[in-house]
From TrEMBL:
It is found in: Cytoplasm. Keywords: Cytoplasm, FAD, Flavoprotein, FMN, NADP, Oxidoreductase. It comes from Nothobranchius rachovii (bluefin notho). This is NADPH dependent diflavin oxidoreductase 1. One of its GO terms (biological process) is iron-sulfur cluster assembly.
């Protein structure tokens, strides 16, 4: 590869900005550029002074707040001690993802763009303000913004004009390769073990909380199943006030895990280790070694409604002409209305898409799973109890999400359905942690 090294940094609360950041990275790879992509809080902001080309992709949460995985970077960047010309060697661009129905639409992206300018950064393009409320969705802004960005990069690096990019239908190298272990080299790993030196619960160090009760509080005849669920948080060090937020990462349904493994001809009991092919770090949420069952049940978001990038990547594995044409249509700018009708409106899941494209699914290699499927994101619940009244206990009220679309099978909320299905008597362990305390 030739040309500058592109760094793509993202701040993402629900995974959308992360997905977009990886989309930028894939476009860079197709242009044969070296690229790194990572969340903002895993990047040392003091190193920005030595970077040459950076794209920032960020969403806005709450009342104009940065995402949780961006807050440390945000505080550093806005220190008064950072000199005005600190970033005068940096070429950069900011792409914001937001919703114009909120008063502080893309507030974080706008403020970040302005701050980078103040610190001497050269902004290659105007700040991109993607809007969920647009008739064509955020891609109505993202597509032309990316085109303009690459035009500016080409102007700065004329040698790139001689580079022959990879074809759109050519698969990119996977971010990781799977190395399966034989029976003799397997090690047992308990992903829910409690460290002996307990730190405050966080996304990188969650606390395994035992479920004590799972009781329906609405009458059986009522249309809405609402559960009062209580957890034992003894020894966690968790402190909270009523109304604070607990984050819970759900598991995929057992039936979905079985179907996924059948479609891809995977042995759920087989163990593997991951080896990065580039600069990406092995996901912190996966034990090492890891079983296929653990990966599919607790990490791959196979029950989510897939984004456009899912179809873009899936199409590169298609050998059946009919399936390839349809997947390419769904991944094109012109096909977004068709994709909305197929996927978004009926809430069709990624797993259901795989069953609709059986020939392509049969060609899908295991090494590309972590590129194709995002990580299951934690869900937030307001805490419905007080430590003064219930010491060492944490309670939440959960309304089980269930609704019907044009699809025959009812749609179910992944986390609420999973929580409602858990039986405290079976000794099941829930991984939970506190984020965004008030």
């Amino acid at each position: 590869m030739s040309g500058p090294v592109l760094l793509v940094l993202y701040g993402s609360q629900t995974g959308t900005a992360q997905d977009t950041a990886h989309r930028v990275a894939r476009q860079a790879q197709r242009r044969r550029l070296k690229v790194r992509v990572m969340p903002l809080d895993r990047y040392d902001p003091a190193q920005l002074i030595s970077e040459v080309l950076v794209v920032f992709v960020c969403s806005t949460t709450g009342q104009g707040d940065p995402p949780d995985n961006m807050k440390t970077f945000w505080r550093f960047l806005f220190r008064k001690s950072v000199p005005a010309g600190a970033l005068n060697r940096l070429d950069c661009a900011v792409l914001g993802l937001g919703d114009s129905s909120y008063p502080k639409f893309n507030f974080v992206a706008k403020k970040l763009h302005k701050r980078l300018e103040q610190l001497g950064g050269t902004m290659l393009v105007p700040v991109g303000l993607a809007d969920d409320q647009h008739d064509l969705g955020p891609d109505a802004v993202i597509d032309p913004w990316l085109s303009l960005f690459w035009e500016k990069v080409l102007v700065l690096n004329p040698s790139l004009a001689d580079v022959v990019p990879l074809r759109e239908d050519e698969p990119l190298p996977p971010s990781f390769t799977f190395h399966f272990l034989d029976a003799e080299t397997k090690r047992t790993t308990d992903p829910a073990r409690v460290p002996s030196d307990r730190t405050a619960p966080s996304e990188s160090c969650p606390f395994p909380a035992r479920m004590l009760s799972n009781r329906r509080v609405t009458h059986p005849s009522h249309f809405q199943d609402v559960r009062l669920i209580e957890f034992d948080i003894s020894g966690s060090g968790i402190e909270f006030a009523a109304g604070d937020i607990v984050m819970i990462r759900p598991h995929n349904a057992a039936a979905d895990v079985r179907l996924f493994c059948q479609l891809l001809r995977l042995d759920p009991e087989s163990s593997f280790t991951l080896k990065p092919t580039g600069n990406a770090a092995v996901p912190a949420g996966l034990p090492e070694p890891c079983t296929v069952h653990h990966l599919v049940e607790r990490y791959l978001d196979i029950a989510a409604v897939p984004r456009r990038s899912f179809f873009e990547l899936l199409s590169t594995f298609a050998t059946d002409e009919r399936e390839r044409d349809k997947l390419m249509e769904f991944s094109s700018a012109a096909g977004q209305e068709e994709l909305h009708g197929y996927c978004n409106r009926p809430r069709r899941t990624a797993l259901e898409v795989l069953t609709d494209f059986p020939q392509t699914t049969s060609e899908l290699g295991v090494d590309h799973l972590l590129d194709l499927f995002p990580e299951i994101q934690p869900r937030s619940f307001s805490i419905a109890s007080s430590l003064k009244t219930h010491p060492d206990r944490l309670q939440i009220l959960v309304a089980v999400v269930r609704y019907q679309t044009k699809l025959y099978k009812p749609r179910r909320g992944l986390c609420s359905s999973w929580l409602a299905s858990l039986d405290p008597q079976q000794g099941l362990v829930l991984i939970s942690w506190i984020l965004g305390l008030k």
